User: What shape does this take?
Amino acid sequence: MSTEEIRAIELLGRVSYGRVATSMRAMPFVAPARHIVTDGRVLIRMHRGLGYHRACNGSVVAYGADNSNSGDRKIWSVQFTGTAEIVEPTEEELAAFGPEPRAVDDEPFEPVYLRIEPQFVTVHELDYSAGHPAEPSGRPTEPSGRPVELHSKDHSAEHPVDHPLDHSLERHLHHVA
Assistant: This one.
């Protein structure tokens, strides 16, 4: 195993959720998933009811995770690209996943597990600790030192309006397993 692969596995072990990407009916999609790393491979848990596992099974997928919401000044991102296969996890692997969600989009959660055999592994790191001031929360600032805003203002009503990405994230979190 290369140094980058070892580093990627170590970083992935620091977070519990990531995103799997592949295509379904010739259209790309990204779905959140819970993961563990075992024997140098990524094992993910998804909700069977969404059907995403069918598009992933036997296909090349990318699985990525990061610490972008951690507040750290050093942001990392890892991506594992390889073939996914539906598997039955061992008792130890099931225990490592922890509790399942009660429901996904108001449907009872039904887990399905896929193992990704990585063929390519990438690690990217962004360092905001020197030369790029950040708020204590770790959010990057503009060159002027002003925090980057995630909300815009509705000047007609004088009330903040959520950024479109906030709504997108909320919709995706409903699918998290």
Remarks:
- The first strand starts at residue 17 and ends at 24.
- The helical segments are 3-12, 52-56, 91-97, 164-173.
